[in-house]
Write a structure and sequence with these properties.
Chain lengths: 516, 450
């Protein structure tokens, strides 16, 4: 035989997984969250995702071509960075934001440091932080949600109430990749396939929860902890960002330490610092610790670990967790959390919700009767209604509270009522209405509004709300005339519920408060 | 709960190619070549010279020193030359070349049943040494040395390794199926050396026929048991087996005997039985000729010194319409690539695997920088962190490699290289670095003495 054969060192077979294969799996895992985000936030979110991914890939392609490097864009890591960045953005940001962010991530954070495997912080998160610092306003505008335009996490930090169910499903105000359910599906999918390391994501979640429980001020209140876990990218961070290979440690021990660091820092920043972006920062800070961790915290080989020589003969028992197949654990976790978020949690926080409603109203009264110093609650008139539907012309409308505002001298300067219409597109619309002594509307303010983003939610924006100010009438109509307001296109239900509530409030003030 | 170790990988088994092919004896024609260095340790010294007549089973080279092994002639004929020939390592090494007369005349008394009831431990070890037996699992450590630990009474387990975790290989499978009694006979002899030990025969659970055959052969023997182990590479590694049977992880600075274990391959056990009970030294063993590029994969009982090329022809040669890209002696995980087949099979050659395409060449095209994905660390059976070890090598930080990362614990099983999605040649780097560090240490030691 004269044939010469290929020579190489062993092993001579290789696993079929390649870098590109792993990147495709990560992309696949991010797909559910992307789809939910695009459904919730509409076409604009899809445009954000597409422009972010495209510009990331194009940037790397151009860099490869211009510097004569191998075509690394094909491995899919740029697409992962682009998609990851898009998931951390609000569904309403202008398109230059994802484009600039992706270019920054790929060109500055990744390629300039040597490309794949060489960046020392997560490119997507670095880009997000770059965008936050550079375009603060555009980045922190999270749609609209009535009273305060903030994300659920900002509200939590402000001590307000959030709707955990909508946070879990991803319909709450926030980022495109905000659906906890979809993220869990994707994240646990990666964990089941051993793409990501459980010791990272679970120590992130564990560290965060523990620190929040100890120092968050509410103890082990499950509703409070669940709300914090569901908000502000904790799950996105734990499963998709903290686990980024390049910027996480390599030994199990190091990975656990790194995960705990992220969880603790994230909770600390959330309690004491910038609540909404605490997780981006905590991961970036922990990224900077990775070289140190990899230098000093490394697992010893089995033979040098405690008990290596002392194990008794016989079958080696794995810890219980490892004996249960991963997919079983994953499905159980998802089912449990879904059930909890959809049913239990709301009741856990219901007391707080009622409490918070009142506090929100007090602030709202001050806003709608600016001249008043003190507020006198007129409970008699409200109690007389016995919590039944008010009037006959306003649909299912309820009067919650009524106050008379007085100035420092004790003179009446205005009246305010809190009215709820149960006929919003997505449940209740509650607003506070303020009228001066002459019967002119000062302004309205929403205390409860969770309608469709970009549609019903627009009722809480100045263009709609401002229409009410200065109107002097007993009944407002829709469209045309002095005493009319324009409904929001595509959100007539919400608009009408609002107007009905205002009319009911006016009627109540005129017939009950002034007389009384 | 299936018994296994931590880490490990699942390469495609590919054993179906040859696992049902029964053993077939192949007698070669033409010259046979016997390398003097087939084992770990010092090469043997030739004790024949040109034109000397030789017989089957005759010792033609003698162990030189304690860790060394005799070389046995596998044919009858005349010594043609003692010269340098290309061997498995790829280098030209000293070999005895014998012109085969095709008669295969044995030495006197070979194959006759011996009375072994009165043999002392010393006698057994002497016979094993005389027969030139070395570890047939692949490493080739002289068996008479391995079987003689300092404190034989402290040995608790004699582990017979029939795991055969290497993909493609079926030589042990077939041996266990057809020579189960012979293997047990060898193990019984070895067990006489260790008064307090019991023998555990370990077989991966993808070989149910072999498990059944061995169970049958062990029936009624008090000190014997058969264990079916989870099929996972490197289950047949010495440390993996000890981990499973003794529940112990021990560092490379220790020997299996230090933790009360002696591990012998089932092929070696069979050879011990033949040598001690039948006066038949080691000159032939089972070798699998397999791979996608082989026309009729087979399990041969082949004589040492036969060329791989001849054995391949006996298996029908290369499959029509297929070009063999790579030839390996052994399996694809720990086997060694051969540049040509015109080299002799030796005691440690357990397979000739002919791959139709070369995954390594393909992997080289897919190579990317390290992602730090940590998959290598997940599969390392010793709990090392290969990616960090590779980083330390890149930075030439050998102290970190050795002290902090315990790089010398690497057994070069190849799991990390197999699993690496970036397709980096990790094992190769570690082998080379280990060799360099060991050489440095030897130099330091020598310097210290002078």
């Amino acid at each position: 035989m004269n044939t010469r054969f290929n020579l190489s060192a062993g092993p001579h077979v290789r696993d079929r997984w390649t870098t590109a294969h792993i990147m495709r799996l990560v992309l696949l895992a991010m797909l559910p969250a992307t789809v939910v985000g695009c459904v919730v936030f509409g076409v604009h979110a899809l445009l954000i995702v597409l422009s972010s991914v495209t510009s990331a890939v194009l940037t790397e392609l151009l860099f490869d071509k211009l510097t004569g490097r191998p075509d690394t864009w094909k491995d899919g890591s740029a697409a992962v960075t682009g998609l990851m960045l898009a998931l951390t953005l609000s569904g309403t940001v202008p398109l230059y934001i994802p484009i600039l962010g992706s270019i920054f991530a790929i060109l500055v954070v990744k390629c300039a440091f040597g490309g794949l495997g060489k960046n020392f912080i997560n490119p997507a998160l670095a880009a997000r932080c770059f965008l936050l610092i550079s375009f603060g306003n555009a980045m922190t505008e999270y749609g609209v949600d009535g009273v305060s335009s903030a994300t659920p996490v900002a509200e939590l930090a402000a001590g307000k109430v959030v709707n955990i169910t909508s946070m879990f499903l991803g319909t709450a105000n926030g980022v495109i990749g905000g659906s906890i359910l979809a993220l869990l599906v994707g994240g646990l999918f990666l964990w089941c396939l051993d793409v990501i390391h459980g010791q990272i994501c679970f120590s992130v979640l564990g560290g965060f929860t523990l620190f929040m429980a100890l120092f968050g001020g509410k103890g082990f209140d499950p509703g409070f902890l669940a709300a914090h876990l569901c908000g502000g990218g904790v799950v996105l961070g734990a499963f998709f960002m903290a686990t980024d290979y390049v910027t996480s440690p390599m030994s199990r021990l190091g990975q656990t330490a790194y995960g705990l660091l992220i969880g603790v820092l994230g909770a600390l920043f959330r309690i004491k610092g910038h609540a909404a972006d605490s997780f981006s920062y905590s991961i970036i800070v922990a990224n900077l610790f990775v070289p140190l961790i990899d230098t000093y915290i490394v697992d010893k080989p089995f033979a040098y670990r405690k008990g290596a020589m002392a194990l008794q003969r016989g079958e080696i028992k794995k810890p219980l967790m490892q004996r249960i197949p991963k997919p079983v654990i994953a499905l159980t976790v998802i089912a449990l959390l879904a059930g909890l978020a959809l049913s239990g949690t709301y009741s856990l926080t219901k007391d707080t919700i009622d409490e918070q409603k009142q506090a929100a109203s007090a602030a709202a009264y001050r806003a709608v009767i600016p001249d008043a110093e003190t507020f006198e609650y007129n409970n008699l008139a409200v109690d007389a209604l016995k919590g039944e539907v008010y009037g006959t012309d306003f649909g299912r409308v309820y009067i919650n509270e009524a106050v008379v505002g007085k100035n420092a001298a004790g003179e009446i300067v205005g009246y305010a009522v809190s009215v709820t219409s149960a006929e919003g597109y997505d449940g209740n619309v509650t607003l506070t209405l303020g009228v001066n002594t002459a019967g002119k509307i000062n302004c309205i303010s929403y205390t409860e509004l969770h309608e469709t983003p970009g549609k019903g939610m627009l009722c809480g924006e100045p263009p709609f709300m401002d229409q009410f100010a200065g109107k002097q009438a007993t009944v407002l109509t829709v469209g045309g005339g002095d005493n009319s307001v324009d409904a929001i296109t595509g959100a007539t239900v919400t608009s009408e519920a609002s107007i009905n509530a205002v009319n009911a409030g006016l009627d109540f003030i005129n017939t009950q408060l002034k007389e009384g | 709960m299936r018994m296994t170790f931590r880490g490990g990988v699942h390469p495609k088994e590919q054993k179906a190619l040859s696992r049902e092919i029964p053993l077939r004896t192949y007698d070669p024609a033409g010259e046979l070549v016997f390398p003097l260095a087939q084992h770990i340790g010092k090469p043997a010294k030739a004790i024949v010279k040109k034109n000397d007549p030789v017989l089957v089973g005759q010792k033609i080279a003698e162990a030189d020193g304690f860790v060394s092994a005799n070389v046995i002639c596998s044919c009858s004929g005349k010594v043609k030359a003692v010269e340098k020939r290309r061997t498995v390592s790829g280098a030209m090494t000293d070999c005895i070349v014998v012109e085969n007369d095709g008669q295969f005349t044995p030495i006197e008394g070979m194959g006759e049943r011996q009375d072994i009831s009165r043999l002392t431990a010393q006698d057994i070890l002497a016979r094993v040494k005389e027969a030139g037996i070395i570890g047939l699992g692949g490493a080739g450590f002289p068996t008479h040395v391995k079987l003689a630990p300092k404190a034989p009474e402290k040995i608790r387990w004699l582990i017979a390794n029939g795991a055969e975790c290497e993909p493609y290989l079926t030589c042990n499978d077939q041996l266990m199926r057809s020579k189960a009694d012979g293997i047990v006979e060898g193990l019984e002899i070895a067990l006489r050396l260790y008064p307090n030990a019991e023998c555990v025969i370990c077989i991966e659970d993808n070989k149910p026929e072999a498990v059944a055959a061995m169970q049958k052969a062990c029936q009624g023997k008090a000190r014997f048991s058969v264990r079916a182990l989870h099929t996972k590479y490197p289950q047949g590694g010495e440390r993996s087996l000890i981990r499973v049977i003794a529940g112990v992880d021990y560092p490379v600075t220790m020997l299996p005997a230090d933790v009360g274990c002696i591990v012998v391959n089932v092929g070696t056990a069979y050879a011990i039985g033949r040598a001690v009970a039948y006066n038949e030294p080691l000159f032939s063993h089972v070798i699998t000729v397999t791979g996608e590029a082989v026309k009729a994969p087979a399990n041969f009982i082949a004589r040492d010194g036969t060329s791989f090329a001849e054995l391949l022809e006996a298996a029908g040669g290369v499959k029509d319409g297929v070009t063999a890209a790579k030839a390996l002696t052994g399996g694809p995980m720990m086997g060694v690539a051969l540049s040509t087949l015109d080299i002799p099979i030796q005691k440690t050659s357990n397979a000739l695997t002919l791959l139709a395409d070369d995954p390594v060449a393909k992997a080289q095209a897919q190579m990317t920088p390290c992602l730090h994905c940590g998959r290598c660390s997940t599969v390392c059976p010793n709990g090392l962190v290969p990616a960090l070890m590779a980083d330390a090598i890149d930075l030439k930080n050998f102290e970190r490699y050795e002290k902090k990362l315990y790089g010398l614990e690497c057994i070069a099983c190849g799991c990390c290289t197999f699993i690496c999605p970036a397709k980096r040649p990790l094992t190769q780097m570690f082998k080379q670095t280990k060799a360099e560090i060991m050489a440095q240490k030897r130099a330091q030691k020598a310097g210290g003495k002078a």
